[in-house]
């Protein structure tokens, strides 16, 4: 069992940066791949980025590639999403999640439906 608490959202101007954090509890955190998803008002939840359980493999949505960086620290039971060059279209509630799939499988095949555990979300608002 894994419990996830995501944080770090806020209001930022376009072009700015934010760092989201996901704190996990549970003995098996390090054995899961982790991911970030987001959901804008009126839209479906979409994949943002994922990272393998040892952090050696990552996968990003095309819309954030080159701007966002996912990382994890298993010693601290934590995962992060560094978001740079933010755009108004990045405005959404961001969720961290965990699953046993590889990052590329999460990003291309299983998506949100394949995740086993979820945080409650943190709101990111990017003003123009």
What's the arrangement of secondary structure elements?
Blueprint: E1 3-7, E2 10-13, E3 18-25, E4 33-39, E5 46-51, E6 58-60, E7 68-73, E8 78-83, E9 92-99, H1 103-110, E10 117-118, E11 122-127
SS summary, helix count: 1
**Unreliable spans:** none
User: What is the number of E strands?
Assistant: 11
| Strand/helix succession | EEEEEEEEEHEE
The coarse silhouette is globular
Global structural class: mainly beta
What level of helicity do the residues show? under 10%
**Oligomeric state:** single chain
In whole angstroms, the N-to-C terminal distance is: 40 Å
**Estimated share of beta-strand residues:** over 45%
- What is the makeup of the main sheet? 7 strands, mixed
Cα-atom radius of gyration: 13 Å
Describe this structure as you would to a colleague:
The structure is a single chain. The protein has one helix spanning 103-110, and strands at 3-7, 10-13, 18-25, 33-39, 46-51, 58-60, 68-73, 78-83, 92-99, 117-118, 122-127. The chain contains 1 helix and 11 strands, in the order βββββββββαββ. The strands form 2 sheets. Strands 2, 4, 5, 6, 9, 10 and 11 form a 7-stranded mixed sheet that branches. It has a 4-stranded antiparallel sheet with strand order 1-3-8-7, with no helix packed on it. It is mainly beta and 128 residues long. Strand 4 (33-39) and strand 5 form a beta hairpin.
